[in-house]
Amino acid sequence: MAKKLYVGGIPYSTTDAELKEAFEQTGEVLSAVIIIDKMTGRSKGFGFVEMANDADADKAIEEWNGKDFQGRALTVNEARPLEERAPRRDFGGDRRMGR
Which of the 8 DSSP states describes residue 57? Predict the structure, then answer.
């Protein structure tokens, strides 16, 4: 079963392909995506790598967590599910001049 990994500390100049290539050293990679800021179009410095199976994912965590990648130390661990965000609070009333 596939397992998704969180990868933090990615150099801002790294591409999805470079990230995938690095993690392929530890096993089969199904996908590798670096998260991009919508406003600036630049990397946020983290991403996700989906490994084909649990054994490859465990090996990738062991191999890459805390290790240097293009001059930066990576943080690699099992990705957690996205938590539901709290709804926006709308206190009503007139927002002008504190009324």
Answer: H
User: Mean pLDDT for each consecutive 10-residue tract of the chain (99 residues)?
Assistant: 95 97 97 96 97 97 97 96 68 57
The DSSP secondary-structure symbol of 36 reads E
CB under 8 Å to 8, separation ≥6 — which residues? Answer: 45, 46, 74, 75, 76
Which pTM does this prediction carry? 0.81
Indicate the SS3 state at residue 91: coil
- Residue 67 near residue 74 (C-beta atoms within 8 A): yes
* Residue 66 CB neighbours (<10 A): 11
Q: How many CB atoms lie within 10 A of CB 34?
A: 21
Reduced DSSP (H G I as helix, E B as strand, rest coil) percent helix, strand, coil of the chain, to 5:
20, 30, 45
Q: Kindly list the structural domains of the chain, giving each domain's residue range(s) and its CATH number in brackets, ordered by start.
A: 3-78 (3.30.70.330)
